[in-house]
Amino acid sequence: MNQKSAELPTFVRNFSVQLSPTPRGARLARLLATEQLRAWGLPLDPARQLVAELASNAAAHGRVPGRDFRLTLYVVGATLRIEVTDTRGEELPRPQTPALDAETGRGLLLVEALAHRWGVTEERFPRKTVWAELPCTPPGPAF
Questions:
Q1: pLDDT value for 12
Q2: What's the CA gap between 129 and 36, in Å, rounded?
Q3: CB contact at 8 A, 13 and 75
């Protein structure tokens, strides 16, 4: 006897692009992510703020001359995962408490506040991936 069980469809989407580790590359990451989220019919914020912060960090702190960083967006079920991979694996990001008058140093605090979950995955040296996840409304099937 063959029984069929009811399965809920799980929609999977992904987008990945390599960009130069420069302020221009970080800005392009945010713009490309915004357009991809729009194409998938997902809310733009706070995802684009997270992309902007993670890409900016990759350009500022993960920069190695001649090596790009990679932005990847995944939607699996009801979760959007944003990943930024750079080639500075020896420097892992840590949230810090900056001085009140400091002009920088609050980026990961912002990521922590906006993301449902976030973390760092050490990969095969010299890479690391900083990721953030957000709940989202699952997109419909692609046609």
A1: 83
A2: 20
A3: yes
Please say whether the beta carbons of 54 and 72 come within 8 A.
no
Long-range contacts of 28-37 (CB under 8 A, 24+ apart): 29/55, 29/71, 29/84, 30/55, 32/71, 33/71, 33/73, 33/82, 36/73, 37/73, 37/80
DSSP letter for each residue of 23-81:
HHHHHHHHHHHHHHHHHHT---TTHHHHHHHHHHHHHHHS-BTTB-EEEEEEEETTEEE
Distance (Å, whole) CA 97 – CA 37: 31
- Please identify which residue in the block is written with the tokens 């990961």: 108
List of residues 6+ apart from 121 with CB closer than 8 A: 128, 129, 131
User: What are 133's two structure tokens?
Assistant: 């996840």
* Dmax (CA) of the chain: 71
From the CB of residue 129, how many other CB atoms can be counted at a distance below 10 Å?
Answer: 19
Give the tens place of pLDDT for each residue, 27-73: 999 999 999 999 999 999 999 999 999 999 999 988 888 899 999 99
- For residue 75, the tally of other CB atoms under 10 A from its CB is 23
Q: What's the pTM?
A: 0.85
Tokens 């095969």 — which residue? 124
